[in-house]
Amino acid sequence: MNSYIVGAGILNIVTESLYDKPIVVFREYVQNSVDSFLKTVNRTNKDIFKIVIWVKDNDLFFLDNGAGIAANAFYSQMISIAMSYKRKATNLGYKGIGRLSGIPYCSELEFINICNYDKKEFQKYTISNNKYNEIKKSNEYSQMSFNELMQAIGDFDEQVSDQEIENISKIIRDYQDLFTIQKTGFIVCLKGFNEILKSTMENSEFIEDLNWLLPVRFKKELLSSSVGELFEEITEKQDEKNIPAQAFSITFNGIELERPITESMLRDYVCKCDLTYAVCVHSFRRDKIAINKGNKFSGIRIYIDNMLLCDESELLPILQQYGFIQHTANELIQSVKGIGAMIYITDKVNISANARRTFIEVTDDSSIEFLKKIAEFIANIYNARYALSKYSSAKKNMEEKKADIDDFKEKANHALVKLAQESIQIDEPEFDTPNFNELNLTEQKQIVKQKIAKEINKKIRSYLSQANTFDYENAYEDFKVWLSSN
What residues are paired with 126 via a beta bridge? Predict the structure, then answer.
């Protein structure tokens, strides 16, 4: 019986369908770096680990001081696909294909394994995109296996030459402090990156996109705020009760990347609630839940190991597709953008990222149950928004009896408590009824107009219910006569 062989065409399928957005290059190589940190003997001292990303001329570099790859396994890992020694429950990536993500965006993709920095022991494997494109046009391409393709388009140096040692040393000369304690590491270089990747990096929102995407730290001002302990707990404290969402030092062109949340972006309440498979940290106002276009910390973002999977633009249509939300995605977008929420997946055994790492794998009861819990959380946001809106409107218009206003108030407060899942002690919302005498003339006129209109409407309804005949031409005069006698 012939053994099954993966064809060369799998490379095109992987790079064209799974990695169709240039920014995924940053996600995939950072994921590999973080996973390498978790394999080192120094993994408990994560402050020593760094990921340095920079552009020089027309080349893009990723450097880390993680564990690298064992020298005797480097070549086999470079020419294989979907083979990984990572564990699903502990590593960010585990499918064994992420290293290929850079192929569509450069002329050469170079991997340098730093086996020992002090001894200048390096290995290198280079994939030529030009060779790859030539082979794709040939007749032999359809008959090749993936391993044969990688051997044809790749060059392997088990121990690089003296000239290459000098070249590699120049690349990392400015970052030699990374190897004071940790002697191993890895370099990925996208040589001659194309215009698509270039335009992505030149986009005005690129740095902010990286800040949301990658497992970076929170700003120091946020950690020193009144709720700083909660944010520190998410990514810094490491014990069995806390979220496995570690943050690392990552720089791009010398800029330290940080989650783009400032203290001023937080609302009245910052809460942490349990979603069984995940924990949710969210911030909302106690008087209303409405879109604030100037606040970048808005909507819902789902993370796995502090790496962004998706936001509400992908989440809501999928929940709607599965029938887990009662309202349309467009209706709910107005509500969820009124809060700032980050959902961190904590159960990586039952919940994992899909192949594209843009959402979770929806394959079993656990993933379905998780989506239902997210849908319930969104319903709580929606209900809180409209409970607050009804209470605020009734109080503002002064049209309701005090008992009705108190009822709206009670419902609004209940909705807020449910949204917070009682993770914090929520105070009664402080909605102060304005003193009529303190209002300006225009505001007084508006309130008087509303009160008169309400009373007149009551009289009209009473008149219509009692009258038996009507004269259209004299209807208003007839009503005034009736009104004067009642």
Answer: 110, 155
